[in-house]
Amino acid sequence: MGFRTRAIHDFADHVWNECLVGDRWIHVDSCEGILDRPALYEKGWGKAVRKVGAVDAFGAVDVTRRYCATATEDVPFGICCDVYSRFMREGLERAFVVELERVDALEQAEMSRRREEDAEGELPGRTTGSAAWRQQRGEAGRRGAGETKRVEAPTRYRLVEMEAEAPLAGLRCVCRASGENAPSESANKAFDGRESTKWLCFQKDGAWLELRAVDGEPFAIASYSLCSANDEPARDPRDWRVESLGDDRQWVTVDARKDVEFDARGQVKAFVVESSTSVASRRARLVIDSVREPSAANSVQLARFDIVPK
């Protein structure tokens, strides 16, 4: 149709487009059927928007300020966009480059001004995907006063394939979780011994991950370790409990941690369990009380949860 368009990526898990109409870039989300409502994700979905990039055949632009009300300047990202844009414009006619730069300048001025949001009522929550999936991600929008939060059923038990040197490798184990992003980020990925895979759950606070031995003697936990996943530090566990199932079929907390911060991706942190709290059991679980940045994360993720028995 002759419009200049570009792809928009929020560096988390959603993409949309923008279209240049006159001298102004317009937000276009064809999945949702929404036009020119850039506050949709923050104010409608309740999604934490942290970094947003725009790319087309003539360059790249940091457009986070258009979609995030609290955006701050990301200097390294801006430099990368500028370098890429210069590279993509090499060899173009000078008059065309001047026109591109004119539109760029207008866009920067527009994003620098505080945008007055459309006053046509509340922005909607996400409409695409199943209701359960949208609710699990926390993107279904604001719930009505009489509506209660949906509680998802835990996943089915999955067989765990541990690496040969894992402390529990001699036991046949299964696992399950309060939720998972199957099949690529399912519960069993936390026990495969690889830092390149991960368990991801959209439940966030209160999410849990359980390991169950189906044979062998009950074991007490001497220590355990967690490994941070490959991206989005905001999703790292911060506060958690490790529990064992007691003889009375009640979960007993054997270790609890608060304000733990992973400094890098793929970082392993080990924790010793006090002997006075240990409980011999065939079932253990990790309960996430809070992620690192609750307001910025839509999920919790973990590359590894390794248990060392006594």
Structural account:
With 310 residues, the chain is of the alpha+beta class. The chain has 2 domains: 109 residues, Roll (C8orf32 fold), CATH 3.10.620; 159 residues, Galactose-binding domain-like (Jelly Rolls), CATH 2.60.120.260. Strands 4-3-2-1-5-6 form a 6-stranded antiparallel β-sheet. Strands 7-8-10-15-12-13 form a 6-stranded antiparallel β-sheet, with no helix packed on it. Strands 14-11-17 form a 3-stranded antiparallel β-sheet, with no helix packed on it. The longest helix is centred in the N-terminal third of the chain and has 19 residues.
How would you summarize the topology of this molecule?
Blueprint: E1 4-9, E2 15-21, E3 24-29, E4 34-35, H1 40-45, E5 53-56, E6 59-62, H2 64-67, H3 75-89, H4 94-112, H5 131-137, E7 158-159, E8 173-177, E9 199-201, E10 208-213, E11 221-227, E12 237-245, E13 251-257, E14 268-272, E15 283-291, E16 300-302, E17 304-309
Antiparallel strand pairs: 1-2, 1-5, 2-3, 3-4, 5-6, 7-8, 8-10, 9-16, 10-15, 11-14, 11-17, 12-13, 12-15
The tally of helices reads: 5
Please report the distance between the alpha carbons of the first and last residues.
68 Å
**CATH architecture level-2 label of the largest domain:** Sandwich
- What is the class of the largest domain in the CATH system? Mainly Beta
Overall mean pLDDT: 88
State the helical fraction.
Answer: 10-25%
